[in-house]
Structures are given as structure tokens and as C-alpha cells.
Amino acid sequence: VQLQASGGGLVQAGGSLRLSCAASGINFRHHDMAWYRQAPGNQRELVAQIAHSESTDYADSVRGRFSVSRDNVRRIVYLQMNGLQREDSGVYYCNTQYKGDDYWGRGTLVTVSS
Questions:
Q1: How many C-beta neighbours within 10 Å does residue 97 have?
Q2: SS3 84
């Protein structure tokens, strides 16, 4: 299982970014996918998730600003982030589970400047 996240960068507060995570080694359409983030000194936290049924859920801190979606043909999960705030800064990781194990992408850094 490989997860490759991309799309991070430096953005001003109020700006937008779209993260992508390309998955391989799994039957993508049957897997729930999730985005986590970790800021320096903080624990990794769940940001958004999208089930294989395409139902979605969000952390309260991002609900209404972030949107998670998936492309089962391209095997990519996206995280559209709008209205970015400094508190959204961190390394964003893509996650899925396969045969009971968690798999993580390398992560992509998002830095929001004021």
C-alpha cells in the first residue's frame, strides 16, 4: 500500500489549497480514506474522512471550510481547504486501513501565514 500526498505549500490566511493523495496497492473504491494533520508539538488529529460510500465527516474546526472528495477512477482523494487560518498549519497526512493496519502517506506541509 502506498499513499502519496501532495499540494501543500505556503499560503496567506484566508487563502486556499487543494491537497491530493494518490493511492496504490489497494482496491481504492472499497476503502475509506482520511486526512490527518499534525502541528509541531501537537498530536496528529483527524481532519476529514470520506467513506467508500462517499459519506464524509469533518473535524469541527474545519467544517464548512474544508471539503474532502475522491476520484475512484484515478485513485485519488482530495482535500479542498478554503478560508485557511494559521491554526491550519501543519503536516497533512493521508490515511487508510488495509487488513487491520493503518497506512500513512509521507505527508505534505501546509504553512499559513498571517
A1: 14
A2: coil
